[in-house]
Design a protein that fits this description.
It contains no helices and 8 strands. It is mainly β. A 6-stranded antiparallel barrel has the order 2-3-4-7-6-5.
Length: 123
């Protein structure tokens, strides 16, 4: 398990982050670069994923996050997001959402363009 450094300065985020460990896959848009990991926390505007591959800030990225509650206790859900890497190090990748969609049918990561339907509102 990666060690996380805790920020002790004043909180600058305007959205609440919820700690949750969910399976995640991500793919750099337009490249064959991909990775898997586990979410550390999530908010309405972004997600922090514990993963070993570093991805440069500013990189467009798509991710599929396993949702913890299935539809009708049978059909699995997944959160499909497109966004931008805002921070990355040897243990984590932070993604700011530009669009997202909660879907009952898992979609392949390579269908990233046009995938999410809902736009994230700016702050």
């Amino acid at each position: 398990m990666p060690k996380f450094r805790f920020f002790t300065g004043p909180e600058r985020r305007t959205r609440i982050r919820f700690p949750i460990a969910l399976g995640a896959q991500f793919m750099v848009v337009g490249r064959q670069e991909a990775g898997t990991g586990t979410t550390v926390n999530i908010s309405s505007h972004g997600v922090l994923i514990a993963s070993t591959p570093e991805v440069s800030p500013g990189t467009p990225i798509g991710a599929v996050i396993e949702w913890p509650v299935p539809v009708g206790s049978v059909c699995p859900l997944a959160l499909h997001v497109l966004g931008t890497v805002v921070r990355s190090d040897e243990a984590t990748v932070a993604i700011q959402f530009s669009t997202y969609e909660l879907s009952a049918q898992p979609k392949p990561l390579d269908q990233g363009r046009g995938l999410p339907k809902r736009r994230v509102r700016s702050r």
